[in-house]
Known about the structure:
The protein has helices spanning 7-17, 39-54, 73-85, 101-113, 124-131, 148-160, 209-219, 235-244, 270-278, 293-299, 303-313, 324-338, and strands at residues 26-29, 58-63, 94-96, 117-120, 169-172, 187-191, 205-207, 224-228, 254-258, 261-263, 320-322, 340-342, 344-345, 348-353, 362-366, 376-380, 383-387, 407-410, 415-423, 429-437, 454-455, 457-459, 464-471, 495-503, 515-518, 522-526, 535-541. By secondary structure, the protein is α/β, with parallel strands linked by helices. The protein folds into three domains: 7-258, 3-Layer(aba) Sandwich (Rossmann fold); 270-340 and 466-541, Orthogonal Bundle (Glutamyl-tRNA Synthetase, domain 2), CATH 1.10.1160.10; 344-455, CATH 2.40.240.10. Helix 7 packs across helix 8 (235-244) and helix 11 packs across helix 12 (324-338). The longest helix is centred in the N-terminal third of the chain and has 16 residues, at 39-54. Adenosine-5'-triphosphate binds at residues 30-32, 40-41, 43-44, 64, 227-228, 260-261, 268-270. Its main location: cytoplasm. Belongs to the class-I aminoacyl-tRNA synthetase family. Its EC number is 6.1.1.18. Residues 454-527 form the tRNA synthetases class I (E and Q) anti-codon binding domain. ATP binds at residues 32-34, 38-44, 228, 260-261, 268-270.
Amino acid sequence: VNLLPNFIHNAIDDDLKNGKYADGIHTRFPPEPNGYLHIGHAKSICINFGTAQKYNGQCNLRFDDTNPTKEDVEYVDSIQEDVKWLGFTWDDRMFYASDYFDKLYDFAVELIKRGKAYVCDLTADEIRQYRGTLTEAGTESPYRGRSIEENIDLFERMKKGDFADGQKVLRAKIDMASPNITMRDPVIYRISHTRHHRTGDKWCIYPMYDFAHPLSDAIEKVTHSICTLEFEEHRPLYDWLLENLGFDSNSRPRQIEFARLNLTNMVMSKRKLRQLVESGCVSGWDDPRMPTISGFRRRGYTAESIRSFCELIGVAKSNSLVDIAMLEHCVREDLNKRADRIMAVLNPIKVIITNYPEGKCEYLSAENKPDSSAARYVPFSREIYIERSDFMESAPKKFFRLKPDGEVRLKYAYIIKCTDIVKDADGNIIQINCTYDPDSKRGGSTAGRKVKGTLHWVPLDGCLNAEVRLYDYLLNNDENAEQTDFMKELNPASLTVLQNCKIEPAAAWAAPGTKYQFLRQGYFCVDKDSAKGNLVFNRVVGLRDSWAK
Length: 549
Ligand code: ATP
Ligand code: MG
Ligand code: MG
């Protein structure tokens, strides 16, 4: 990725100028394995890996797995797959915060020995009450004065399993009157008799994020710990821990915050995405309507398009809402370059070209994607399908598609004229009869004849049947969806399944993941549910770009 110049890089440049971090720049991407990655994580991945690339440094992949109740190996696997797919590598620098549980425990003991941490018996509720408010200083815990010896003994017994969940915690001893509530003796270890997906039953105490994160960064010799804005208030604690555990200020990691990505018509928090999955509103984490990386991949987004989106949105320090049209613009630009063109009729009606010889079939050459020399050949014969919406029986004057007595050009083929229509007993049109102008094909004597409309079509003989899934946004556009009850904003029409679509024969062997431009319709991708003879396509995005620069 090529990130635009931004305040994070300015800060790094300053650090380097001031002689800090002489051993090079080192970042990390630290997902908690409690769900699948989403497009917001893609932004963080691009910033962390992109920054390391820019400074010829390194970026670690670190699983922040300190909360065993919500974590699972399924997520560990999907996260690796998604980061790789986005185009980033970590070589041998994949770590787990749980690998540091012993070291983190030792750091906690060291804090106790330095008189900077104590075991507290207050309940979670009491701790909250004692903490005070923005306008009111907190109250010191009655356990704050415990001796170092007693604290060491109690902490060891916490580790051994002598106490029940919630009975005791370890707290940093900082300042109950601090204007920053995070600094009012934060909890740094809690008891949780829960099996961990990697350490099993070895531990029944687990470090809190605010304790584990700076120390994991320091252990890995990370220089710049880039995170989202909601951690700004935690930065003094980050620094306090490193300072009080004796890490040198010229080399210890530094936290820098940026604005998280929010997208219109989407929610992004994993908790909400999980709710969508568990309630059955979507088919899974990789449902093509989901803002997950696996959802976008299945839908037909390319890694390049997501990376160029991350470059385009830039890195800023104030929160904002990005129009999803911008992401669609990026995938459209990318697929325009890489997707083969084919014709597909989503809602077919049969057309018979009555003066075209029966049994004849010719192969018409058709253009492929821009700059591609590989042409394809589309079989043309007497019976074809066109889009039902491309015909109108009583059409207004400005309707330039097919109508009684009207003429249109069939893409790559001839000009046809509608002579009559056939209806069933209920009055539905079931067939359109036309004649064709045999000289109007490319190279023919009337090829230059102007008609207003050009239609896509597929030959009846040899075309493929397909299911096509059309997607709309999962959520109605509500700027506050992250705050309000987003389940009320669900768009009931986010999925439309068309069962009887007809596709040009060229797509017969297309494997899942293959992308096409269906002429006049948009970009489509073969779904993982697809099989030969049973094709399934996802609409990635329509052709019309609604993103205003
Ligand atoms: P969520 O609230 O969705 O669960 P999280 O921040 O708890 O997100 P983590 O797995 O801890 O999820 O995130 C890993 C990294 O990705 C963190 O550094 C986090 O700041 C960053 N990140 C998460 N969501 C976004 C977002 N919407 N935009 C940018 N970065 C994000
Ligand atoms: Mg997190
Ligand atoms: Mg979270």
